[in-house]
Amino acid sequence: MAADTLSKVFAALADPTRRDMVARLSEGDATVSRLAEPYRMSLQAVYKHLRVLEDAGLVSRPRGPQPRSVRLEVQALELMDTWIERHRRRVEQRYRRLDAVLAEMKGDEHEQSEEDGHRSGPEAAGHPDEP
Asked: Residue 57's closest CA among 4, 2, 7, 9?
């Protein structure tokens, strides 16, 4: 169920108008007419966007007489955050392992160049002043 809800949340947030509505609702509850103000669309279109957000669990509108406030639901955001954090940790672990391997390779490279530097001295070339 969580995966299905997560899919709905990400799908709902794929639309820039709905992302903007969520951003505006993060500042506080608002009526539908207040939410509709900045958009050049019909109130019916705003209701369609809100329906998608509701179906995804991102917003709720309490039942009752009009005007009803639209409220952002934190549970859906927490679900997204949990999913993102889990994958962020995995990626960060991969990068830390890669950094460690690269640092080890660089250290080996540095040691190798020091060894090569010692060999390139007079004894490595078979210098004639050598006994």
From this structure: 9
Q: What is the DSSP string of 41-85?
A: S-HHHHHHHHHHHHHTTSEE--SSSSS-EEEE-HHHHHHHHHHHH
Which residues are registered as beta bridge partners of 30? 70
**For 84-99, how does the pLDDT look when each residue is reduced to its tens digit (9 = 90+)?**
999 999 999 989 999 8
Encode pLDDT of 48-63 as tens digits: 999 999 999 999 998 8
- 69, 30 in Cβ contact below 8 A? yes
Cis check: omega of the bond before 67, within 30 degrees of 0: yes
Global pTM value: 0.68
Both tokens of 38, joined, read: 């900045």
